[in-house]
TrEMBL record:
Peptidase M48 domain: residues covered: 165-346
The protein's required cofactors: Zn(2+)
GO biological process per UniProt: proteolysis involved in protein catabolic process
Homology family: Belongs to the peptidase M48 family.
Domain of life: Bacteria
Biological source species: Marinomonas posidonica (strain CECT 7376 / NCIMB 14433 / IVIA-Po-181)
GO molecular function: metal ion binding; metalloendopeptidase activity
Transmembrane regions: 103-121
UniProt keyword Transmembrane, yes or no: yes
Keywords: Hydrolase, Membrane, Metal-binding, Metalloprotease, Protease, Transmembrane, Transmembrane helix, Zinc
A GO cellular component entry from the record: membrane
UniProt cross-references to PANTHER family, sorted A to Z: METALLOENDOPEPTIDASE OMA1 (PTHR22726), METALLOENDOPEPTIDASE OMA1, MITOCHONDRIAL (PTHR22726:SF1)
Protein name per the record: Peptidase M48 Ste24p
Length: 348
């Protein structure tokens, strides 16, 4: 706008009904200039010094000033006035963006980081904080249910001799006693044959550890390695990792449904809570926690963590010979790489 728009109209002083003839010139960026010789007024107003009345059909648009005075332009100038007010409002919006573009850019960059951090750390932290409040009876219920399902799908009676089974169990219970593990009387160890798990051991939330026959056979010559595996699983039991993993996946689902505003997913997360245990894999952080427990316990019991290193070597060899993990196996194993675990055991 090069030339100001000039409108004639009536000017009213605050709380007065007398109309004075006046001229109003509208300039760029919402600056106006009022001239009313009858009332001896000649003044410039900036944005914010005045408000425009809403656009109501059939009525003129009026300018209301902070001191209560009013200017009513002639109704014939309404269209031109509206155009001017739109253009200066558009300019106002651009100016607003210009003033805040740094903040906007910062928002655009930081928002995905905030969401990603929420995803990465939110469920982990929440599950850590809330797991102690989950009643142990729920752990037992979920663990019993999972064992029942696994026994129907895959696990079958062990072929190992009772003598061998009892020897391993006794050594493990003796270790728990020496380590003064709380609630150790309720800890259970089962030996089972498994097509799916092959050379493996895993923990259920009802304080039950399952070790497969084939893993025991791989470690027969090294009882320390068997105890190292059992102590790793004991770590999972002590820290209630099954429940934590379950809560973690539950919070992740809630977070997803909140971000996507999808209430159906939220429903599913409640329904899926009971069955989620089969899908919940321990995080690397939990595996490290269990490894750390096994390593420190072995150092305390045997003076060294060699049993752990040997167990890792057997697992590593078995893993290479076997494959890639089956999908079912991978549900239960998210262990860090073998070498990383051995390095951890070698730390003083
Ligand atoms: Zn583990």
């Amino acid at each position: 706008m090069d030339q100001p728009l000039i409108f004639a109209g009536a000017f009213f002083l605050p709380r007065q009904s007398k109309a004075y003839a006046a001229l109003l010139s509208c300039r760029e960026k919402g600056v106006i200039y009022l001239e009313c010789s009858e009332a001896d007024i000649s003044k410039e107003y900036q944005q914010g010094d005045f408000t425009l009345s809403p656009n109501i059909m059939g009525l003129p648009i009026s300018f209301q000033f902070e001191d209560g005075s009013v200017f009513n332009p002639d109704i014939s100038s309404k269209t031109a006035l509206l155009e001017w007010s739109h253009s200066y409002r558009k300019g106002k919006w651009l100016e607003w963006i210009e003033n805040r573009y740094k903040a906007l850019v910062l928002c655009v960059i930081t928002l995905p980081i905030i969401i990603a951090s929420l995803y990465l750390y939110g469920p982990t932290l929440l599950s850590r904080v809330t797991t102690p409040f989950i009643p142990v009876s729920i752990d037992e219920l979920v663990g019993d249910k999972t064992l029942f399902l696994l026994e129907r799908v895959d696990l079958s009676e062990s072929n190992l001799s009772k003598v061998m089974q009892n020897e391993i169990k006794k050594a493990w219970h003796d270790n728990l006693k020496k380590l003064n593990v709380p609630h150790q009387a309720s800890f259970k160890l089962l030996f089972r044959r498994s097509e799916i798990f092959q050379n493996n051991a895993f923990t259920l939330s009802n304080r039950t550890i399952v070790m497969t026959d084939s893993l025991v056979k791989k470690m027969l010559s090294n009882q320390q390695a068997i105890q190292a595996v059992l102590l790793h699983e004991t770590g999972h039991v002590i820290f209630r990792h099954n429940t934590r993993a379950l809560m973690q996946s539950f919070y992740t689902t809630i977070l997803t449904s909140l971000i996507l505003n999808d209430l159906e997913t939220l429903n599913e997360s409640f329904i899926g809570l009971g069955t989620g245990v089969v899908n919940s894999a321990f995080s690397r952080e939990m595996e490290k926690e269990a490894d750390d427990f096994a390593i420190q316990s072995l150092k305390q019991l045997a003076g060294s963590s060699n049993g752990f290193i040997e167990a890792m070597q057997v697992l590593g060899e078995a893993h290479v010979r076997h494959h890639k993990e089956t999908w079912f196996e991978s549900l239960f194993s998210t262990h860090p790489p073998i070498q990383e675990r051995i390095d951890m055991a070698n730390e003083p």
